[in-house]
Structures are given as structure tokens and as C-alpha cells.
User: Fold these one by one.
Assistant:
Number 1:
Amino acid sequence: MKFLLLSFLLLSQAFALTPFSLENLSSLNPKVLDKKKSLDPKFKELLEKKLQQKLESIGIKTQSNSFSNLLIKIDSTKVGEKFLCYISLVLVEDVVIQRDKPTKAIAITYSKDDKFVTNFFEEDVLESIEFLLDDFATQYSEENEI
């Protein structure tokens, strides 16, 4: 019986996209963060356009009056001829935490990342971001029945 219950729990989690919910999300402020300034400004502009286009293609407005930021954080380190890259897609929003007295806070409400080593920095960063955005769009579409 324990084996059956454990199998059911593991199987049900195998089809879950993430532990986060994207239901009823309507507008965001997309941003690309490059704190090490490793991106060419034109390439960063291209990434911001792709991010905005992807969000608009699934019905998410890209101007929000609330604190709802979809961040793409790019962190890379050059080692010899290769780059060690860490790309993360994070949704940060205002939330109300239910305590003795409801409290407003900022929370990460979605997060997914990608790590890789590459010789072709811009090409692979773009591919990684497209992969992360596709996963985000798929989950959003499934949860909002688009």
C-alpha cells in the first residue's frame, strides 16, 4: 500500500510544470538584468524585444502599474575561451502574506533557470532565454486555457 501511494505521488509530480502558479496573470514589467555588463547593448536590446514579443504573443501586457516584474538575469564568467553562464527567469510580485495581521511583501512567484558552458556566448544565451520563455509561455497557456 505504501508503494502504491508513493508511486501515485511521484507520478502526479512528474507532470507538474513547476510548483508556481501563473493563473490570472495579466500584465508584467519585463526587464533584462546584466550586472556584469557582459552583453553588447544591441544584443541586450534584442533580448528585451524578444521578451516583450513573447509575453504579448500569449496575451500578457508588458506595462504594469503594480510591482510585477519578470526578470531575466544573465550571469556569466569567462574561463579561458569558454563562458560559464547562469540564466534565470524570475517573476517577482507584491503579495499579501496571511499572518495575524495581513502583511504586504515582495515574493518570487515563478522561477526557472538554466546553466551551461559555451564557446558561443550570444547564440547560446539567446537559445537559453528562448527555452526559458517557452516553458513560461506553455505553463501560462495551460493554466489560463489559452
Number 2:
Amino acid sequence: MSESAKPAAKPAGAARQQRLMQVLLAPTVSEKSTMVGDKHNQVVFRVDRAATKSDVKDAVELLFKVEVEGVQVLNVKGKQKRAGRFIGRRNNWKKAYVRLKPGQEINFAEGEGR
């Protein structure tokens, strides 16, 4: 097999960590995400549209130093909006439900004030 015909491998070391730092965009805070967090020990994130389940899992474990039990992702379609006679559309985005192992917790407030 020639060099150009080899399948692309995952980036190694520092390049992979750099990629994982860009996967999680923001936590999603809503009534539903709070309920899911309390009931099923899950945290909801807005993630990069190209992110996979394994990318999200690795990113959460790297950034928050917790153990992840499972990840569910879903694509959210952007809403159609209009201003007068002009019609536009918001961008599509991806959401991830991250289930943490029992006893694990992510505290978003601990990083503030330093």
C-alpha cells in the first residue's frame, strides 16, 4: 500500500488535544437540561457539528477530569426567522447529552473568580 492510499489516522498527542479543546462550545442551560441532569446524571453541551460521540467523550474527560459513561448526540435544525418581508434561517447545530458515571459531577461555577 502506498503512502497516499493509507487511511487517515487520528491526530496524535498535542494535535488531538488541540482538536478536543474545540469540540465543546458551551453548556446548554434550560429547564429540560436541568431536569435531565438531576434525574439521569447527565450534562448537556452544544458541540461542534463535526464532533463524534468519542470526540465528545474524550473532550469532557480531558477538560473536566470526570469519567463518562455514555454520550448521545442529536442534530438540531435551525429555525426559520423573518423580519418584515425578509426570510432567513438560523444555523443548524449539534447537541450532546453526556451521562456521567455514578459519583461524578461537573461544577461549572468552580472555574469562576480566579
Number 3:
Amino acid sequence: MRRSLIVVGLLLAFVVPTADAASTVQAGSLLPQLKVSAPKLTGYSRDLFRLWTDADGNGCDARKEVLISEARVKPTLLAGCRLSGGRWWSAYDNLYITDSGSLDIDHFVPLSEAWQSGAWRWSAATRERFANDLDYPLSLIAVTASTNRQKSDQDPAEWLPAFSTYRCTYVATWIAVKWRWRLTIDPAEQVALRLGITGCGAAARVPKPTRGAITTAAPAAAGSTTTEPNSTATSGKLDPRFPYCTDALAAGLGPYTKGIDPEYAWYRDGDGDGVVCER
């Protein structure tokens, strides 16, 4: 009996608490809202994304913040935000790690992939917010350096974690992060996401994402930046209203989704898909 209780205790120690249903959403409900578009394959440089900032000024940059928040056994925090001890679970390969130096902080949607699917239009400030996104708990993840480098900049049509039990969560998280940042998906990626989410059930539930605050880089001929539709969540303002979607697109705005963006009502939804001013 004692041995059985010990086994049960060990199992419970490694159970990840599940979020309340009211604070989660089925990733499958977000997938149809992702715009399908061909990727932009030119112009990317990692230097376009400022990495590992200390937004709250507490002495720990975004990389260290992820390590601290994801530790299964919390490390001791030393001067200069140095970490001593600690234990982490690398979800991609189902390994427990006690050396934080052997972990990479993976951008769930890689920087190159983000660039190809919309970040090429963003301002430098938005790219920095994306690269250091601590506001949504799934955007960044601590994993072994070897699996992070195996993944590289591949999307789920090209790479999935070796730990198959985690794949439903992986695909669901990919969808949620892309939705949060209004990033597009390509046709092969769309198929992989649909197949990957099928039959996942509760494993496809993710914390409800909110829209990231996005500003677009000003066109060369323009004198100021423009704001993406969901900047209304942070600025309280709507995008400029134009007579036609073509004018909104030319200004770097759109798409607008029914039930999410008030600007949707301004334009004609010719194909009735719940999205207007699509690229």
C-alpha cells in the first residue's frame, strides 16, 4: 500500500494544472480566423527583432523571465538575475533539465516565420514586442537547445516535436500565437494545422489569447506609422475609415474580423466569410 501511495504521489507531482474552462478556448475555433496567404520569402534578418529586453526594469531580461516562470523547481535568484539550481521540463523531447544553460528560449512561432507571415509590415516596436512577448504565456518556451535548433524556423507542416504526446498542445499553441499577432498561414500549414488539431479534444484548449498591439511601418512615401485594427484594445481608437477596402489595404490596414473588429461593419463582406479587407 505504501509503495502505491508513493507512486501516486510521484505521478501527481508532475501533473500540470489545467486552466479553468472560462479562461481557455479551443484552438480549433481560432483556426478559421487565420488568413491563408503566400509567405513573403525575402527581406528577413534576425537583427530586425530586438531580443531579450527587460521591459519591467527588474534586472531580468525576457529570457530569464521565461526560465523563472517555467521552472518546475524554482532556481535561486542571485545578483544580476543569475540563476542557481532549478529544474525544467523540455516539452519538445520530454526531458527534465537542471542546467539552465542547456536550454534555449524558443519563439513558438519563429522570428523568420513571423516575418514571412506578416511581421514584414510591422514597425520595429511591434517586432520587439513580439520577440519578447511575456504577456501571453505560450509565446515563448524553454526547451533543450538541440530540439530548438532541430525545429529552426519550420512550421508544423515541416516539423513537429519528437514527444508525440505534446503534439496536440504544440499545434494548438501555434494557432493561438498566430491568431494573437494576426499572422497568416500558408496552404500547406493550414492543412497541417487542421489535421494536427483533429481529435485532440481537451489538449487543444489554450489560454484565451488577446490581440497583440501592432503598428505597421510607414510606407516610404508616408510620414507616419499606421495602426493595425486591434490597436483599439490599447488606444481606444478605431482605424481611419475609407470608402473602399482597397484604400484601407493601401494604408497598411486590415483585415477586419466580424465580432472582433468594429471596422468590419464599414466594408462589404462579398464572400460572407466574416472577414473584410483581406490581403
Number 4:
Amino acid sequence: MESAFNKKISAQLEFSAKNAYPGECCGILIGMRSKNGEIEITEARDLPNQIPDAKKNAHFLTDPLLLYQVEKELDERGLEILGVYHSHPDCKAILSKEDLENMVPGLLYVILSVTKDGIADIKCYRKNLV
């Protein structure tokens, strides 16, 4: 999965996580899937975190209407949402119970561990299709 990310996308994810700190950043990974199942991430798009400020360091929520609008736009361009990303401020880059419960099979889930000193770790997960 690492090969799906180029340096520009990785730098953008890191910038988003540092910029949102001490809150959580969140966004979507956009790109194409080849016929043999390989993916290419061509864009990372930040989404507004809809969680009230008091809880933004522990949760994220995106607007479903905004996601629908983005999906329509991407469909017209021959692209799709291939995954989501979010940061874990002052926590490890591991799936939380909430992350596990909300994972959509087949999508990539990138978690960035961020502290006041910067990015501590980045992990990518995917729930297999059943």
C-alpha cells in the first residue's frame, strides 16, 4: 500500500495533521483503481472536522452531504474515494475501537500520530472485503 502514496501526498497528510494539532485532521484519499486491483492515490482532500472543539482531539466526523457532492464530482472525472485519513493527537497510529467499528471494507485508512513536536508515526490499514 505504501507505493500508492507519493511524496507530495505524504507531505500533504503530514501538513494537515500538524496544522490541525491538537485537534484531529480528517480527509479523503482520491485516485484510481486499476483492473488488476492496484491503486494510485492522486489527491488528498482535507474535510472539515464537524466535531465540536472540545472533542476534536479525540474524534472526527465529516458531513455526509459534502461526501456525496465530492463523489459526484469524482465520478465525472473517472476517480473515486479510495480511503480516508485522520490524525491521532498525542496517541499511537493504531485503529481505535471507533475506527474499527466504522471501517468500510476495501477502503484505506491512514492514521497519523502527531505530537507538539510533529509526526511521530504513520500507519495504513485496510479491512478486507468479505
